[in-house]
Amino acid sequence: MSEWTKGTVDLRMTDISDSKFQQVDAKRLTFDEVNLAETKINCANLEGLTLNDVNLTGAKITIANMSDMIFEKAQMTGAQFRDIDWPIEGVDANYNPEENYRSVVFDNCILRNTLFTKCNLSNVTITDCNITGLIINGIAIDELLSKHRN
Questions:
Q1: SUPFAM superfamilies this protein is in (predicted)?
Q2: Residues 29, 16: contact at Cβ < 8 Å?
Q3: Domains in the chain with CATH codes
């Protein structure tokens, strides 16, 4: 393999559509007011990536370690989360046999009309939430709690 060439590029009002970057060290890049539609990023280290004021409609993230990722002030209508799991033994470096993982937190979220199917919700805590119409396995939870209180 050849030596890496180091250089800084300052592109302004330039069309670099259909360009390819392979085996490139590109830390600390800044993109302002750019169109990255249909960009594909494969086998990349995006640790510490910041996306601000972006349109991710139709974006797809697969085979990703998203530990400590923060979604804030995001509109996610129609978003889908599938096959989400904790680290897997022998596959993920973050695997912990005691399963001492930090909690996933949903705070101040509108999850109205959300569908959870075949999810492990063991030890989930629901606090100060509007559960009107919440149904678990055919049981209306708000009605069940009302009967329990009485």
A1: Pentapeptide repeat-like (SSF141571)
A2: no
A3: 14-120 (2.160.20.80)
Q: What is the pLDDT of residues 71-118, one digit of tens each?
A: 999 999 999 989 888 888 998 888 899 988 888 899 999 999 999 999
Which pTM was predicted? 0.70
Q: Say which amino acid occupies 26.
A: A
Residue holding tokens 């169109």? 35
* pLDDT tens, residue by residue, 13-41: 999 999 999 999 999 999 999 999 999 99
How far is Cα 12 from Cα 16, in angstroms, rounded to an integer?
Answer: 10
Q: What is the DSSP letter of 128?
A: S
CA nearest to 51, candidates 39, 63, 24, 69: 69
Residue type present at position 73: K
